[in-house]
């Protein structure tokens, strides 16, 4: 006698079967990795399946995770310090493809074309032409590919996955979390003077013995902290961009706990920035504060509080005062210094590199010397009226001179048009939502200040670690698009149409 089976009771869910099989495979891989002495591979195998399940259940959960990993440079640190294959760092943004496909294929949402996208495409095209006309096309094409993968693709992914106020908010918090993590490690390293350890790659130090500061009756050498980035001024630039984001969350979050977290985060991020002892970072912070005051992102009272906070920071880190005291000596290059001190070697070297870049742009006004090729010419051009003899391959140390030197004046015009498209679109959207969407207005203003900080420091830095520029540009345009769509839904005409 056969007993009929209730199909609803004994039906095996194919998805559960697939998940069980995936866990089994991951377990076998983990066991094999342990036997081969690869604990990191084993850990990755164990974590991969639950991560994949959570992603399939909620695709947008990958967005803050990916942003945290990229901004904290965690994947690059894993490659350089922990033996992880280099492909892992290259594929760090790849998980964003999942929410991208979810939005476009399943939800049938339109592809977002950010304000800067047409200019990015034109810039990439001109870079390709510049590479073709350079003296080493095979080498120059690598610079084009860097713009494509770290710039264009990053921009398209982020602007098409950060589509709502909720996702924008979690994304901003992910960036703040990355800065808090990096700043916290730097504060710990300075407080404990753990200068003999790189703290797993997240507490790297500048080369050399540092700079001399008075301590007690003698002098000591203060090392400049570089966090997970590995270069002090670039680390300052990365951290500086996060300060307005953290302050914006402090001013607009309603939850007292979140406001407290935002303030602590802002303090740790600022400390991390200060511990780089970057002179250009201090200049950029002042100019960024002035732009914030002009935009009414901060009130005069808040600027005063920021000034007091800066003074407290200088008291807490007296070594920074010593470092900033050398800024006036830079004017000696132009004969305008009121001191008798000569500019230090670093300043003379950078000005020489900037002059070399300017001469490159003059000699190659149309196509430049080729993407990522300026370093090959800096020593040659630096010998013409330079302030310091340059050795080896040297960077230009000025983004606004490097771009015309490498891609000519047309390349510079396309780059400036890209920035103008982003900034003008943001300002236009901000004026439309100023009275109706305070949270979004503060968020887009914070991104504008972040871009301001990056660009001001770009006067003193070249375009290395360029993924941070493209990530912040993409987040700025994503915030603008989210604010614009929110404004369309809340305007009286839109509400009448819905009714």
**Spatial extent as radius of gyration:** 25 Å
The best one-word shape is globular
Number of DSSP-assigned strands: 4
Average pLDDT figure:
83
> Ends: how far apart?
63 Å
Number of domains: 3
Structural class: mainly alpha
Strand content: under 5%
Major sheet description: 2 strands, antiparallel
Q: Please identify the oligomeric state.
A: single chain
| Helix fraction bin | 55-70%
Low-pLDDT residue spans: 5-12, 334-340, 494-499
- Strand order of the biggest β-sheet: 1-4
Listing every helix as H and every strand as E from the N terminus to the C terminus, the arrangement reads HHHHHHHHHHEEEEHHHHHHHHHHHH
Number of separate helices: 22
SSE blueprint and pairings:
Blueprint: H1 7-10, H2 14-35, H3 39-57, H4 62-71, H5 74-82, H6 87-90, H7 97-106, H8 117-132, H9 137-161, H10 165-192, E1 204-205, E2 211-215, E3 218-222, E4 225-227, H11 232-240, H12 242-252, H13 256-274, H14 279-294, H15 300-316, H16 318-324, H17 345-363, H18 378-382, H19 399-433, H20 438-458, H21 467-490, H22 492-498
Antiparallel strand pairs: 1-4, 2-3
Helix pairs in contact: 2-3, 4-10, 8-9, 8-19, 9-21, 10-12, 10-13, 11-13, 11-14, 12-13, 12-20, 14-20, 15-16, 17-19, 19-20, 19-21, 20-21
